[in-house]
Write a structure and sequence with these properties.
Shape: globular
Mean pLDDT: 85
Distance between the termini: 20 Å
Strand content: 35-45%
Number of helices: 4
Number of strands: 29
Largest sheet: 5 strands, mixed
């Protein structure tokens, strides 16, 4: 199998689509490595479904752009959404897709297009940005109302609801770690950036700037942060020595400012090695900066407003076609929740326990796995106790005995089917 010689690439998009929709660049030379053609991409809507698809929302139509990573042209199917998407984000595993239309949140399952949830009880103005945690267990939404909400996949109510921003949130960055050890960084029109702890829900830092903020990113070590503003400037701030109280002021000095853009900075991205910063702007250009020296290394010209910037490792099939192997499917998306499916998500998200020798011994002693019982209860609608069954201490009548036999048989078949599927994979 051939391997790509590029350790890191830069993915960008702009809102006109005149030359291409998405472009993969070599950041060290500024050369074009690959392009994805067709339509245009709206800001805050681009993402990857595992190692199979590149997707984004169109700026003015309720449609998705969908490419196989090894193809230049889009898929011929029309992926219709409930409205023009304001924000879109796939889960890291690629099984789920969260999109927002105005103040409504839609959660889809990618393999069958099923609309699992429609959430309308969090924001009262349009949602500007959606981000998943790295483990995929939670997602974060930031709205024009200034509210920042954290959602579990299987919950109808937000886990945390923060309203420290007085104006709309323009961007969100979620740091490294799982869904309970990460930090959340925000930028807002109220000229502040805030840092939250995802485990405790506390506000850790409130950073004040001198202009309206439009984008934010953090380096890989989470020691240095960058914000873009309405004036076209990029400012940096240090996270290594935070103040004793929550407040920190950042003045626009030459030591902390990257100047070069002539219009609003729309998106930012830091390279994986922490040496390079990419900034996109409404002046139709992407600038690559050397972080330590504040020097502009090169300018990548575009035909429209920059809407996406990702530093990333090349995915299989992106540069070397022989590497590509589809591992996900993307079905057409439902636009409405079917009647009587309020609890659909709890039935669709479950885990399978692999049988071990200890499990077999427990089964011989009369124990039944709670996870399997819960799964059977969800699947067949049978009301049964969630406690382990002990035949020596509980008396059954004939009807209960028959029901238990049916459940054991169904449980055994379910495990056999699951193990066969896993072994085939």
């Amino acid at each position: 199998m051939k391997m790509s010689s590029h350790l890191e690439v830069l993915l960008s998009s702009e809102d006109t689509g005149q030359m291409w929709n998405m472009c993969v660049w070599d950041p060290s030379t500024g050369s074009t490595l690959k392009t994805y053609k067709g339509n245009a991409t709206k800001a805050k809507t681009a993402g990857f479904i595992s190692n199979t698809f590149l997707i984004s929302g169109q700026p003015s139509k309720p449609l998705l752009n969908v490419w196989n990573l090894d193809k230049h042209e889009q898929k011929p199917l029309k992926y219709i959404t409930p409205g023009v998407l304001q924000a879109l984000c796939p889960s890291p595993c690629g099984h789920y897709l969260v999109g927002t239309v105005a103040e409504r949140i839609y959660l889809w399952q990618t393999c069958n297009g099923k609309l699992l949830k429609l959430l309308t009880n969090g924001h009262y103005q349009k949602i500007n940005v959606v981000r998943f945690t790295s483990d995929g267990s939670q997602f974060v939404t930031g709205g024009e109302d200034g509210n920042l909400l954290v959602w579990f996949l299987n919950s109808d109510l937000p886990r945390f609801s923060w309203s420290h921003h007085s104006l709309g949130i323009t961007d969100i960055h979620i740091g490294h770690g799982d869904g309970f050890t990460s930090r959340i960084f925000t930028s807002s029109k109220d000229q502040t950036s805030k840092v939250y702890c995802l485990s405790s829900g506390q506000l850790l830092l409130d950073i004040e700037f001198t202009s309206i903020l439009t984008s934010i990113t953090i380096d890989s070590a989470e020691e240095l942060g960058f914000v873009g503003d309405k004036d076209g400037h990029v400012q940096s701030f240090s996270l290594k020595h935070p103040p004793r109280d929550l407040k920190m002021k950042c003045l626009e000095t030459e030591e902390h400012c990257y100047r070069g853009h002539t219009a609003n900075v729309t998106c930012l991205a830091a390279s994986l090695d922490g040496q390079m910063l990419a900034s996109g702007s409404e002046d139709c250009s992407v600038r690559l900066w050397h972080i330590a020296s504040h020097q502009c290394l090169r300018v990548l010209p575009h035909k429209g407003v920059i809407t996406t910037l990702f530093f990333m490792l090349p995915k299989p099939g992106m540069l070397v076609l022989d590497d590509f192997k589809a591992d996900r499917t993307l079905a057409l998306l439902e636009n409405t929740v079917m009647p009587g499916t309020k609890s659909m998500l709890k039935n669709d998200i479950f885990s399978l326990d692999i049988i071990t020798n200890d499990d077999a011994a427990n089964e011989e002693q009369g124990f039944q796995e709670p996870s399997a019982r819960d799964l059977l209860q969800n699947s067949f609608g049978i009301g049964i106790s969630s406690q382990p069954i002990l035949p020596t201490s509980i008396e059954y009548d004939a009807d209960e005995d028959d029901q238990i036999k049916v459940l054991k048989t169904a449980n055994q078949k379910l495990y056999q089917a699951a193990v066969k599927a896993i072994l085939k994979e």
